[in-house]
Prior knowledge:
The protein has helices at 27-50, 86-93, 126-136, 141-155, 170-183, 200-215, 227-233, 251-262; strands at residues 4-16, 59-71, 75-79, 101-106, 110-113, 188-191, 219-223, 236-241, 244-250, 268-270, 283-291, 300-302, 307-315, 320-330, 333-339, 344-346, 350-358, 366-378, 380-396. By secondary structure, the chain is of the alpha/beta class. The strands form 4 sheets. The chain has a 6-stranded mixed beta sheet with strand order 5-6-7-3-8-9, with helices on both faces.
Amino acid sequence: MSDVAIRVESLSKQYRLGGKQERYKTLRDTLTDAIAAPFRRAGRLWRGQATGGAELDETIWALKEISCEVKHGEVVGIIGRNGAGKSTLLKILSRITEPTEGFAEIHGRVRSLIEVGTGFHPELTGRENIYLNGAILGMKRAEINKKFDEIVDFAEVAKFIDTPVKHYSSGMYLRLAFAVAAHLEPEILLVDEVLAVGDAAFQKKCLGKMQDVSREGRTILFVSHNMSAITKLCSRAMLFDQGHLITDGPSMDVVSHYLFALQGASATAVWTDFSSSPGINGFKLLSVSVTDKAEAPMSMFNIEKPIKLKIGYYVSVPNLKFRCAAGFYTRGTCAFYTLELTETVRERVGQYYSMVYIPGNLLAEGEYTVGISVFASRGKKLHYCRADDVVAFQVYDPVTGDSARGDYVEGLEGVTRPRLEWQNEYAGPEFASR
């Protein structure tokens, strides 16, 4: 038996702009479509004549000549901007849509979770949809029975399990859809960014379940904009942009390329022209960088390693007194703010550097940007320089047991993660209040 679970060869998908999205059809819809079809065809022909046939040429390639292989047991992340072609690939692999060119081979039982309730029939109850999906996967009723209670408990929909799913909220729909996808033991699991619509507790629960699935040796394709989830769950990642596969390799390398090449973020900022560099009143910012101890610019840092922030600037007025400060931002909030404890006089005209170390095991995993502020506070604060989001970097946790998470592999909350020492002591066999 081949060790290849998914093989894609020269896969391309073309869409016509303005095409209608399909939805499930009732009998009334089918009859109405049949009656209206001749009139729609006539309308299309008239519009084509009125526009000189231009409407027929409005197409876009959602995927273009994609070739790759995924082996059994691999967990592969798929990343890229919105509209890059990620979801289109999963829809083709799920047989929801057909490719325009090329082909895809899948060896194994597939379950996909591409949008809320994929594979559910809205008129059926939650219970009926669980058995329907199990049957589609080729499972016997006895196999589904063994998993049924576990699915319902995970989804937290026991009270509504015999209610048609068209009456479910989007959150209930999602919980049940994910529970079915993860628990019915497909050999290949395709998961799109549907987790983003759940609350934080549910996302954490889903990521934990996906880790369990990956440890069981099943194949997972995981589309996400959460770079921390990609680096945590996936050993390999593929980067898509405008329908093309840009790079394929270790998830840390691919995520770094995405963040700092395609997204325009950088670990180093340099100004060579005084006229355009930030600063006033005798101060000009020249450079900002985040580096390792050896001052090699880094876009990704192991959570255990220190980060060096280095600020270069030019002072053109002697005896200028100020302090440098930096804010580290992530997830829409300030992780922390650091500044020189006292204002220092720069006596001579010339170039200076100010540096600060952020210790390892302080920042939690995630993406960070750094803002720089240089000011004096002689009664009234005077800003010589202010620059937001100057540089960016990512912190990842290798889950080796040496970081603050120890051997705990699920998600942890917070924007800081200090490694603190815990102690235990035995108080004796008798209970005594303290």
